[in-house]
Amino acid sequence: MAGTIQTKYSHYDYLIVGSGLYGATFANLAAKAGKKCLVIDKRTQLGGNIYCEDVEGIHVHKYGAHIFHTSNKKVWDFVNSFVPFNRYTNSPVANFRGKLFNLPFNMNTFYQMWGVTTPAAAMAKIEQQKKESGVTEPKNLEEQAISLVGRDIYETLIKEYTEKQWGRKCTELPSFIIKRLPVRFTFDNNYFNDAYQGIPIGGYNRLVDGLLAGIETKTNVDYFADREKWNGMAKKIVFTGKIDEFFGYKFGKLEYRTVRFETETLDVQNFQGNAVVNYTSHDEPFTRIIEHKHFEPENPFYQQSKTVISKEYSTEWHDGVEPFYPVNDAKNAEVYKKYRELAETQSKVIFGGRLAEYKYYDMDDVIEKCMKDWEEKNVIF
Ligand code: UDP
Q1: pLDDT by residue (tens digit) across 249-286?
Q2: Which tens digit of pLDDT belongs to each residue from 196-247?
Q3: Residues 14, 20, 25, 27: what is their CA dihedral angle, to the nearest 10 degrees?
Q4: Residue 362 is among the residues annotated as catalytic for this protein
Q5: Would you say the CB of residue 180 lies under 6 angstroms from ligand 1?
Q6: Is the CB of 278 under 6 A from ligand 1?
Q7: What are phi and psi of 197, to 5 degrees?
Q8: How many CA within 13 A on the CB side of residue 141?
Q9: CA-CA distance, 116 to 124, in Å (whole number)?
Q10: Which of 161, 259, 324 best tests ligand 1's pocket when mutated (most atoms within 8 Å of CB)?
Q11: The model's pTM
């Protein structure tokens, strides 16, 4: 349980546990409003999972590829006020047993799959496959996928990739996961429908530096090792870690997926011709290969004769590794609900971000939610 939080003699208005996007944004908004903040992080660096590491001068997305995209002008202006963004557009390619397909599912994909050249022909093909499958009201990811793009695409580009990514059958996963991806009847390989998209010029660390400029931070400190002490230092706590850990796992452990990265430096200028190549069959144990330099083609490092790639392996989370993705299935939703109810009773603690809200957030959603929380909960008790 959270320890007593002193209010009278507290040195800080906010103790922010975790310096990822939620924590850093909250600190920024609070500091702008004249509040005194301390941000602590157990890692040796700030920025949570958007942190980039310099390898051969290339900004390596150490905790997985991050592509900023949003339709929220306020959020876009906010992040651009710290660092300008480039015009990177995510257009991943899928490799299924050596054959390449464009993503997201669009006319290029339909042509590569079936040889169809018109939207009407692609729609007819999907409709026919949907009909054959007998799905009327999709109840899980498999049914949702078939009804969106038909059985062929489901079996080639979705089924095995999703099983690798989530370690669960597509029939056991919620349909919203696949609804993240656009389906288009145009020849448009842009992975996102959002109005704004890009990568911070000079890498994500510039964004983190901007958000946390002038704010007191401490790295390499474990909140849980001495939570009474930390709680006593501030009037309010912003907690961005795992909500189940915060409450001592009293309702059991929530499940997460973790990602392991095998990163290599290669003596080639251009390894795969794209930042993201998904491997959608079980033949490869990894889900995708990221070639980091392609996120920043305007950067001088782009021309050099070396490149850095990361293979991503997705496995079940256990103690001692980093939690990445909440597993939003029915079982975990039930457990999370109990933690959420308990969190509501903690008037001096704000829970925010992917881990504390147990939600598959994109970066812009995290910032938007944080802005909303700040507006609603910024009253110091
Ligand atoms: N997905 C898929 N095939 C792909 C890419 C994505 O089946 O080639 C599915 C998969 O279930 C994944 C979901 O779509 O978990 C969402 O993909 P997204 O790229 O949004 O995942 P993220 O980048 O957040 O890992």
Answers
A1: 999 999 999 999 999 999 999 999 999 999 999 999 99
A2: 999 999 999 999 999 999 999 999 999 999 999 999 999 999 999 999 999 9
A3: 20
A4: yes
A5: yes
A6: yes
A7: -155, 145
A8: 24
A9: 10
A10: 161
A11: 0.94
Q: Which of 142, 154, 161, 184 is catalytic?
A: 184
Q: DSSP letters of 251-286?
A: T-PPPEEEEEEEEEEES-S-SSSSSEEEE-STTSSS
319-340 tens-digit pLDDT: 889 999 998 888 999 999 999 9
**By alpha-carbon position, which residue is closest to atom 14 of ligand 1?**
178
178: CA distance to ligand 1 center in Å? 7
Q: Domain 12-87+196-251+327-377 is in which class?
A: alpha beta
Given the CA of residue 145, which atom of ligand 1 is nearest to it? 7
Q: Indicate the domain borders of the chain.
A: 12-87+196-251+327-377, 104-179
Q: Ligand 1 pocket test: which of 93, 177, 325 has the largest number of ligand atoms within 8 Å of its C-beta? A: 177
Max Cα distance, the chain (Å): 71
